[in-house]
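Let's do one together. I've listed all components of the complex below, 1356 residues spread over four lines.
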Amino acid sequence: MVAKLGVGVLGVGEMGRRHAENIRRLVPESRLVAIADAAVDRAHQVATELEIDHSFRSLEQMLGCKEIDAVLISTPDKFHSEAIEVAAAAGKDILCEKPLALNLADARRALDAVAKAGVRLQIGFMRRYDPAYESAMSRVEAGEIGDPVVFKSVGRDKDVPPLAAYQSGVNGMVFYNNTIHDFDLARWLMRDEVSEVHSYTTVAIRPEVAQYGDVVASVVNLKYEHGAIGNVESYVQAIYGYDVRTEIVGSKGSIFVGSLEKTPATFLSASGGTHILADHFLSRFADAYLAEVVDFVHNMLHDRPPWVTGEDGLRALEIAVAAENSHTRGKSCQVMANG
Amino acid sequence: MVAKLGVGVLGVGEMGRRHAENIRRLVPESRLVAIADAAVDRAHQVATELEIDHSFRSLEQMLGCKEIDAVLISTPDKFHSEAIEVAAAAGKDILCEKPLALNLADARRALDAVAKAGVRLQIGFMRRYDPAYESAMSRVEAGEIGDPVVFKSVGRDKDVPPLAAYQSGVNGMVFYNNTIHDFDLARWLMRDEVSEVHSYTTVAIRPEVAQYGDVVASVVNLKYEHGAIGNVESYVQAIYGYDVRTEIVGSKGSIFVGSLEKTPATFLSASGGTHILADHFLSRFADAYLAEVVDFVHNMLHDRPPWVTGEDGLRALEIAVAAENSHTRGKSCQVMANG
Amino acid sequence: MVAKLGVGVLGVGEMGRRHAENIRRLVPESRLVAIADAAVDRAHQVATELEIDHSFRSLEQMLGCKEIDAVLISTPDKFHSEAIEVAAAAGKDILCEKPLALNLADARRALDAVAKAGVRLQIGFMRRYDPAYESAMSRVEAGEIGDPVVFKSVGRDKDVPPLAAYQSGVNGMVFYNNTIHDFDLARWLMRDEVSEVHSYTTVAIRPEVAQYGDVVASVVNLKYEHGAIGNVESYVQAIYGYDVRTEIVGSKGSIFVGSLEKTPATFLSASGGTHILADHFLSRFADAYLAEVVDFVHNMLHDRPPWVTGEDGLRALEIAVAAENSHTRGKSCQVMANG
Amino acid sequence: MVAKLGVGVLGVGEMGRRHAENIRRLVPESRLVAIADAAVDRAHQVATELEIDHSFRSLEQMLGCKEIDAVLISTPDKFHSEAIEVAAAAGKDILCEKPLALNLADARRALDAVAKAGVRLQIGFMRRYDPAYESAMSRVEAGEIGDPVVFKSVGRDKDVPPLAAYQSGVNGMVFYNNTIHDFDLARWLMRDEVSEVHSYTTVAIRPEVAQYGDVVASVVNLKYEHGAIGNVESYVQAIYGYDVRTEIVGSKGSIFVGSLEKTPATFLSASGGTHILADHFLSRFADAYLAEVVDFVHNMLHDRPPWVTGEDGLRALEIAVAAENSHTRGKSCQVMANG
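Okay, and this is what the predicted structure of the assembly comes out as:
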């Protein structure tokens, strides 16, 4: 029997727990070795449920397990870059949730650590693994839409985030935590780089989030290096559902990705026809989260580079930084490559 | 740690293999103990891939494994009822793929064996576990559509079945192998019994299947005991996709279940807007197949009766038999309860 | 200026009034000369609103207007065939609403009168003029779906018909008044003749309509001369909307016609996404009703035969008669061509 | 019989011709008196087809017809404001196509002329009369979406505009000719004023339009006075269809208006399911164009103010001017009310 990739998962909140489950059950080429979480009880509980032996309070402790070949980082945003440095120093390959870091200095330090250690790093832009987005990209690459002209993307979360989520200070503002997915798609699907952005934001319906440097909704205009333009919208409390939709508009055709419906059922009465709407990223992108890990594991085992690189993480972060600068300064801002 | 339900899977063709994978990886309360298949090489290969120790050539051999508490039967249709008798005689609980049997005599003998042995039997009408169908049923039960008036269902498979599938003679004709799902829904969603049916069938585009007693497409009119009516259509080679849709039409409202789209992506060009269509039951009903086994395992472990019973299997079979009789005799036929 | 076709409209209920409006305003090649209605006040009122000079109590009176070249008959069903006979005897071309008649004897007498008088007769199967149905037919004729295998059609009206509509006794039961549209589509789109039918019907949710020989819902299985099969459903009080949908299922592809949505607006809230549904044939088929009259007028003016003939009216009626016979006799019935 | 509003139509290109047809045939309270067009042959031809007596080479000539109570202006954009001045001076009420003018000075001069003459002016923002947009607005007003947070709108034309359209120099660039509809919706549906905008534009796929001061596509970020934000995109050669969609995103719910499908027909084959797409504003908004004129005529006849006012025309124009300034200057620009 071929060797499996031993994986340790750092951070088992909602997202990390899903990754741990996928690795444990659905990725035949991998073996879930250990779980670490600053909330060690949670680490222990997930380890028990998944029937694995090792749980730890920290990445450093977990790295003591010799069977660990790779680390999956799904801590809050703030701790990503440092965890990358630690894991890299220990010689482990890394799959890190987005964003790579919350500022460019941290990001570069993390990438340097990865380079220096000679390990590999994949960033968790899982939408690239979604079958609908993948089929869109295939057709873009096949030239079916001609030249790309306009990129549009919408990302709306369903529920009002608890105020505690802002108070904890461990996650980035909306551009780093949500819109960064769209910033990555903006590069990937258009096969071009964003050179300048302009943001408007609002806290009108929830002014109290302003004190945490965050916003409720944003629209970010995009200007590309080779002439295309775009816009990305984020809204963190849409109430009606989890709504992620993207349009790649070209000179010969266009592609729309996304749908509002959760289940294929329509309820019809004198007051109209009603659908149940998608409500969560873990259901909408269940296949993508799995495919992402399967691909990472496969590439690591077979000595291939990861598909979504640390460089991709840096580029998307640069756009997010520019979007935040535009929000803060009230004018359009250039995306500073390595700036 | 709580005991798990030890399961042996009999038959690992396309369907049984999925069941085996689900039990192995995704049903924490169960343990996949062994696999049996008349094609023993296939049994061995699946066992290897799923990393379990035991594979066998027959149910009888597999029943030698003491850790087996329950048997999942996913052989060709023809062998269902006998396998139920054997598993029951061995004191095992059973989850058997549809149909229960290919004739009423076999079906009753299987149910008698189950009753005599005091074991439990669930029939694989997995659509009842599909989130869309479940939400439909919740609303029917909540009275949202008033009295049910008309039941409609369509089941179309994508690809032309290979002639070998007919020649093997191990599966029932379309009413037993495909339409039986709709016959079950016809009872379940309308909460009433079908009392009479009328069938038209066709082999026009593939006359060679007639010699095997099968047809290419069928429409079956339904008459219910309490006044409702309905129609069920099946077509085994629709080419464009796997298309399962159901309508429950009531006095106050209606519910439609089903959708043609596989992925939420639309490709737009001067020639129109195009969707990728659903193509296979294993993807359309992936969640349902898993939920079915999770529920079976849970009920067995906790000494509860199964949800979809042998009686349900018999009732749907009675409708299929009446539909075949109508096809053969050219007139409407009564559904003979225990007839 | 080219001469226009002078048209008299007989019967200005909801349907006839729409025809009169279309002829008056939207059919440049025609001139609305007069209106007749047994309810002479209504005839007068519509004439006033449409600013034309002549209104009459009867067809006979209206035929005194020399400028009338053609008569559009939109009385209740019961009076269609006799009006055809009278108009034909007066040498007028005729556009008659469906059904041609309520029984085969009347239908044949009407067709004989038309033949004897050497006038032309078009039957109001307006769905053939609907852009969606037309595009479907173009593709069927282009061979895009291969051989037709299954025909499916649903016709549901929104509101509960008033009991007075049954008591008046002037319209045919559901097969003649509603399903006859689907019977016409069944012939036209499949390019084949229906040879046998089987009906189930229900009055369960409104037993009082039974005394008028009518039903609330029906499903009619169809058998075609060349091997295809089909099913047509009608339901006269669906509550949620006006729902007309048709599927032509072929050996290489299929075509679906119809949509539930009235306006392209979706209302999204925590309880789901809701559409406004189509509610009436005059809005769903507004374009078709107009195109039908435009085509009739054009053909009459330019000495061409009508597109949808009296023969088409007879064939659809024969299927309706067989469907009623099946309903009455409880068994499948052959469609008697000229029988 | 009640008097009718005598209307003269100025400009019978594609748009004006539709208005003339509607007035002639479908607006019972109005009478089409005359048609004027600088292309006098075209004026004459349309008059002949619509069977009216008078056609003229200029507005001044047409105003000689005493039966004219109101003038409908549908010339190229450049001539709107001057035509308003002339018609106002003659004491006629006015329905003028968008935009009110191509710059703010002209717009104010036109509004001054209207005020001085004591006539009434309606601007042709016909989307407000579209049933889908109307139902959206009703629900916004009913508070169903709570506070408005984000406004999104897309307007894409199907075909590549001929270069001659740019060379003629008689129409405004995209912000004045296309996006102005969205700027009006942005104010109307959000019930708030836009205070600042930021534009990115592109000519990448057709650089030759730059010399005419125009662009191929644009994205305009919007900032509202009371805290909401938005984005509007225009693209003049989408190829796949005529695509107008709007989202009003609120604190409790959202409303989406628009659909890509032209006819409710789906063509299914092994390569997927395909829809025919909307292709032209005259079909998509046919009902709205008619309702607009019906409402204008009714208000004029009954001495009521028009619904969509000159002030509305000015406000939308101010946003367009700011959008163009942002495009030219490369930074966000304030919307200068009367600025």
